[in-house]
Design goal:
By secondary structure, the protein is an alpha+beta fold. The strands form 4 sheets. Strands 1, 2, 3, 4, 5 and 6 form a 6-stranded antiparallel sheet that branches. The protein has a 5-stranded antiparallel sheet with strand order 8-7-11-10-9. A 5-stranded antiparallel sheet has the order 13-12-16-15-14, sandwiched between helices. Strand 4 and strand 5 form a beta hairpin. The relative contact order is 0.06.
């Protein structure tokens, strides 16, 4: 009886032990399966984050590139619409383009008239007789009145034969009709070389495409430039999708299942798609998962090997830690191979890390920058702005910022730097512990902006202000004079019988004559607010803020006498037989809100007409000169 009871107890113990072992094994397998699924999802999520960061960075790079083309096109279109496409205007633009240095981003610049004929180019080639009216971008601008920049599909360059991306703008005649196209081109190889610097795995890819699905550049290339993917689900439903997002698909180009992140540009009709092969992403996870599942099955087969399983788990964790270290090393390698300078800045503004590119950007080796102040060397005029931006990031007011400033270079006097800043946080507490700064040298870009700005407001022949800049200054000074109750005077100067001078002595002599008169006007514009401008043809203008009628008359007479004293021979200008000018002057004040600066121009123009009618070589002041009370600086 006792033996049966003992057997029964042993049977129950065996049963419950079996149940326990079975439940434990099922639980272990279930928990392990859930864990592996979570690990798989975490691996994919990590790769999605990497692809998102890469796509955003490359989208910013594309935006910066097209923004540079926008700047060049804006200046060229403004110049063409201001000065037209006559021989002199085109010669000036051709001279400017011929002096343009070759750049990695913008390969070449072209100007075409309304028939597609080449007018000017930065390429050193003979373009006589060439015509681009058959190009899609030219036909687009001829058919569509939109003035914005048009990014076209990639084409083969007629000047070099390579694949290029076109960015173009339309310019018009004064009556608003189509006058031609200004075009900038970017080598597809520029994007391919840049994208080739990023590690996206053996079967990964990076692609830049138009919003309608035509590939502009793809790395690896494999001859996919210009391929139309408008029928793919991503492009077909692009307008219904958010501007950025994760996207899993099987590539129609090579049949590889890919994990990707797409990012549409907020400024241009392009998008970037950064992808990794799903098999490549999950390969490390599969290898690790198989090992763990084998260990779990071994545990289910015999709980006695728990110690060995623990060792195996420790070994697996060591492998995972090594993988994390390797991944961190990969990111460091990316930073150290980048042409941009990467710095890690602590809360106290000390530099914790600087990439090797610091030697190229600032002239200082990384070890010379570490443990020094990140604010050292910044131009005093920009220092407060930079400090304010960093403080805002450190205080948590923003996650990222972008700022341009001047700073000292070891070998050069000073350089312009553009820096993108992003906060970093402690892995334990989540508190902000510094910022990461990615900087690039923008000196050449800034110099080009300054030169283009100067060209936009000055007259090419005389170096005086052009008509557009004069109109802007006149409106501003008129508003200021009305607010302050101050007088505003204007002199309009016209060269007497200038057409006869050109016919007799030639246009080169005419240009020299206009430059001599411009120098006289520049000498008379002595105060910072005075504006000497070429008003049109042989007509000049001198704007004299805070100057009453007497002062205006005095300056006008000085100009007339100085030009006569130049002694420039003019046989068809009797009786002096020298170059002379007729001058009309006016002084006005806006007495009512209805008055505008056009009344001042009209009064001066009327006086100029009277000076010509009176025999020329004279000064006539407008009969509507207003006497101003008090002491007026003449």
């Amino acid at each position: 009886m006792s033996d049966h009871r003992s057997d029964f107890r042993q049977g129950r113990l065996t049963f419950w032990a079996s149940i326990f072992v079975a439940v434990a094994c099922v639980a272990i397998v279930a928990v392990s399966g859930w864990r592996e699924w979570s690990a798989r999802q975490a691996t994919l999520k990590s790769s999605e984050t990497d692809m998102a960061n890469l796509a955003r960075s490359l989208t910013q790079h594309a935006d910066d590139t097209f923004e540079l083309t926008d700047t060049v096109l804006n200046v060229l279109v403004g110049q063409l619409e201001l000065e037209g496409t006559g021989p002199a205007a085109i010669a000036k633009i051709q001279t400017f383009l011929s002096r343009r240095k070759a750049a990695n981003r913008i390969r070449a610049v072209f100007i075409y008239d309304e028939t597609g004929r080449w007018l000017a180019t930065s390429e050193p080639l003979d373009f006589a007789g060439l015509n681009n009216s058959d190009r899609d971008y030219f036909q687009h601008h001829r058919a569509v009145a939109d003035r914005g920049t048009f990014i076209g599909h990639p084409v083969r360059s007629r000047s070099g034969g390579q694949w290029i991306i076109t960015a173009s703008r339309r310019f018009n005649h004064p009556d608003g009709s189509f006058a031609g196209v200004a075009l900038t081109t970017i080598n597809v190889d520029y994007f391919l070389q840049f994208y080739g610097g990023f590690d996206v795995g053996q079967n990964g890819s990076v692609a830049l495409a138009t919003a309608d699905g035509v590939i502009l550049a793809r790395s690896p290339d494999n001859g996919y430039t210009g391929r139309d993917l408008s029928s793919t689900p991503l492009i077909r439903n692009l307008r219904e999708r958010p501007v950025a997002g994760t996207y899993y698909f099987t590539s129609p180009l090579d049949g590889v299942r890919r994990l990707s992140f797409y990012q549409r540009s907020s400024r241009y009709p392009v998008l970037v798609v950064a992808t990794e092969s799903e098999d490549d992403v999950l390969a490390p996870w599969r290898r690790a998962a198989l090992g763990r599942m084998a260990a779990v099955m071994g545990l289910a087969g015999g709980l006695a090997v728990a110690g060995l399983l623990l060792v195996h788990q420790l070994h697996q964790r060591q492998k995972m830690a090594a993988a994390l270290v390797a991944k961190e090393a990969d990111f460091r390698l990316l930073a150290e191979q980048s042409g941009d300078m990467v710095m890690r800045i602590a809360i106290d503004r000390q530099i914790l890390y600087a990439s090797p590119s610091s030697a190229q950007v600032l002239g200082w080796a990384p070890n010379e920058l570490v443990n020094t102040s990140a604010l050292a060397g910044i131009n005093p005029a920009d220092l407060a702005r930079v400090e304010q931006t960093i403080s805002a990031l450190m205080d948590g007011e923003a996650e990222e910022a972008r700022i341009a400033y001047r700073t000292r270079h070891r070998e050069k006097t000073e350089v312009w730097i553009e820096t993108a800043l992003r906060v970093t946080r402690s892995a334990q507490s989540g508190d902000i512990n510094g910022v990461v700064a990615i900087s690039r040298d923008m000196t050449e870009h800034k110099d080009l902006e300054d030169k283009l700005s100067a060209l936009a407001i000055s007259d090419g022949l005389t170096s005086l202000a052009n008509r557009r800049h004069f109109d802007e200054r006149l409106a501003a000074e008129w508003d200021r004079a009305r607010r302050e109750g101050a007088p505003l005077s204007l002199l309009l100067i016209d060269v007497d019988h200038f057409k006869s001078f050109n016919d007799q002595y030639g246009h080169q002599a005419g240009d020299a004559c206009l430059r001599s008169i411009a120098r006289v006007l520049a000498e008379q514009a002595r105060r910072p607010a005075d504006v000497a401008a070429r008003y049109g043809g042989e007509e000049f203008a001198l704007l004299l803020p805070n100057t009453d009628g007497g002062g205006c008359k005095q300056v006008g007479e000085q100009i007339r006498q100085a030009i006569q004293e130049l002694g420039i021979l003019h046989a068809f200008n009797p009786p002096s037989k020298q170059v002379t000018v007729s001058i009309g002057g006016a002084t006005h004040v806006a007495l009512t809100d209805k008055a505008d600066c056009a009344s001042l121009i009209a009064a001066a123009d009327k006086a100029l007409y009277a000076a010509k009618e009176s025999g020329r070589n004279g000064l006539v002041m407008s009969g509507q000169i207003i006497a101003w009370p008090g002491s007026i600086r003449a």
